[in-house]
Amino acid sequence: MTTQPAVGYDGMWARPEDDARVTASPVGELATIREYLTNYRLTLAMKCEDLSPEQLATRSVPPSTLSLLGLVRHMARVEHSWFHRTLRGHREVPLLFWSPEDHDLDFNAAVADQGCVEEAFAAWKAQIAAADEWLDGLTDLGALVLLPRGGEASVRDILVHMVEEYARHCGHADLLRECVDGRTGL
Q: What superkingdom does the record give (predicted)?
């Protein structure tokens, strides 16, 4: 267990020089959504810092299969599903970390193995980079896209859903990390 000197509210905040998240008062709706999305992505990464494969794969709240490593795999899958398959329309591409036999493969196959950890983080980072590249060219938040199970949604709705998805899972990550080594806050 690595201990850190307490910063703000007994260690609840990261030292400013160690915190890549920003609050830059973005101008415009898309810039605001992107800042929130980026900061939540960074928060999940920070929750996973300095942990071994065993710690990352720890399922701290039995009988749940939730683990920090599972969350990284899950968010790679979510990024891929929404940005690549839905927003870009590449539905023929198989889902990441999913199978017809195991719809929770992202969590169930998150095992304490360095190769699994490397694969998960590489996939997640690749999906984030691809999503950010797509977002760089986005001009219409109101554009409608077809949803995987039918119906339509605006690009805006999907992006706000992505912020919500990260916010929810960063809350899970807070509790999981505290169970692993007692670290709270960022």
A: Bacteria
> What's the CA gap between 87 and 159, in Å, rounded?
10
Q: For the segment 104-126, what is each residue's pLDDT rounded down to a tens digit?
A: 999 999 999 999 999 999 999 99
Indicate the domain borders of the chain: 52-181
Q: How far apart are CA 75 and CA 27, in angstroms?
A: 27
Question: What CATH architecture applies to the domain 52-181?
Answer: Up-down Bundle (1.20)
pLDDT digits (tens, 9 = 90+) for 126-141: 999 999 999 999 999 9
Contact of 184 with 174, CB cutoff 8 Å: yes
C-alpha–C-alpha distance, residues 1 and 50, integer Å: 9
Is residue 25 very low, low, confident or very high in pLDDT (cuts 50, 70, 90)? Answer: confident
